[in-house]
C-alpha cells in the first residue's frame, strides 16, 4: 500500500501538533502512519488525551505504540473499561457518540 503525501501530512500533523507526540517517536514506529486517521488514530488518541487531561494517566507512562498498535479489545480494556467508574460515558466518547463537553 502506498501512502499519499496528504495522508502522511494529516496524520503527522494530528500526532505531533494536536497530540504532542515527538516525531522521533513516530519515526520509531512508522507503521502507525498506515492506520486510519478517522477510525483508529483520532478516537484512540482523543480518548487517551482526555485521560491525560483528567490526570487519570500520565503522558510519560504511555507510549504511542501502546495506544495505536494493540487490538481493539486490548485498547478498550487498558484505556476505556478500566476508567468507566471515573468516567461513565468514556466509551460513548471513544465511539464518537458524544463530545468531550458531555463527559
UniProtKB/TrEMBL annotation:
**PANTHER family, per the entry:** CGI-12 PROTEIN-RELATED, TRANSCRIPTION TERMINATION FACTOR MTERF15, MITOCHONDRIAL-LIKE
UniProt KW keywords? Transcription, Transcription regulation, Transcription termination, Transit peptide
According to its UniProt entry, this protein's organism is: Abeliophyllum distichum
**InterPro entries in the record:** MTERF, MTERF_sf
Q: Which family does it belong to?
A: Belongs to the mTERF family.
The protein's name is Mitochondrial transcription termination factor family protein
Coiled-coil residue windows = none
Question: Ribonucleoprotein among the record's keywords?
Answer: no
Its GO biological process annotations read: DNA-templated transcription termination
Which Pfam families does UniProt cross-reference here? mTERF (PF02536)
Amino acid at each position: 500500500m502506498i501512502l499519499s503525501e496528504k495522508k502522511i501530512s494529516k496524520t503527522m500533523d494530528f500526532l505531533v501538533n494536536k497530540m504532542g507526540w515527538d516525531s522521533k517517536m513516530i519515526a520509531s514506529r512508522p507503521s502507525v502512519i498506515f492506520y486510519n486517521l478517522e477510525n483508529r488514530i483520532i478516537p484512540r488518541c482523543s480518548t487517551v488525551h482526555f485521560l491525560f487531561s483528567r490526570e487519570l494517566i500520565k503522558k510519560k507512562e504511555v507510549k504511542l505504540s501502546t495506544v495505536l498498535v494493540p487490538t481493539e479489545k486490548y485498547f478498550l480494556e487498558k484505556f476505556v473499561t478500566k476508567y468507566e467508574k471515573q468516567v461513565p460515558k468514556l466509551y460513548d466518547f471513544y465511539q464518537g457518540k458524544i463530545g468531550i463537553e458531555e463527559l
